[in-house]
Design brief:
Blueprint: E1 5-10, E2 13-21, E3 24-29, E4 40-41, E5 49-54, E6 60-70, E7 73-80, E8 84-89, H1 92-97, E9 108-113, E10 118-125
Antiparallel strand pairs: 1-2, 1-6, 2-3, 3-5, 4-5, 6-7, 6-10, 7-8, 8-9
Length: 135
């Protein structure tokens, strides 16, 4: 699974995190079975189910940043799917070396095959949580 953004562990299960409201946070699922656990359909997208919980009820919370290693260089990841990854850098030497497109000043982007890159996930705890070996 390719992921980036905010995630939390609630009652032993990992969820994507949505809207934050002070001491509360929305946890997000696409699993229809979660309706039995107090989740409700999102107002604008019935494929998303949300449940508002206290941040203090989370077991962990963290930000996942996705990086890519391609041809010996490290890149940020703009988008990633099962088959393609759009990588980015602001290093002009690397951008020119790899003949990357220049969508804006100082930006270099390139779409590459998913099989040609190594994706690296970096997890950083948020809101005073720590990460243990199980996360």
């Amino acid at each position: 699974m390719i992921r980036k953004g905010l995630y939390g562990v609630y009652q032993g299960k990992e969820y994507s995190l949505g809207k934050e409201d002070g001491e509360f946070i929305n946890i997000v699922s696409r699993d229809i079975a979660e309706l039995k656990n107090g989740f409700i359909p999102h107002a604008w997208d019935n494929n998303l189910l949300i449940k508002q919980v206290k941040k203090s009820d989370l077991d962990a919370a963290y930000n996942v940043t996705l990086f890519a290693k391609y041809k010996g260089h490290n890149f940020g990841v703009l988008t990633a799917s099962e088959f393609k990854v759009v990588i980015a850098t602001n290093n002009p030497q690397v951008g020119h070396e790899l003949n990357m497109s220049v969508p804006g000043r100082g930006e270099f982007h390139m779409e590459v095959n998913r099989t040609d890159v190594e994706l690296i996930e970096e997890k950083k705890p948020i809101w005073g949580f720590t990460l243990d070996i199980d996360n």
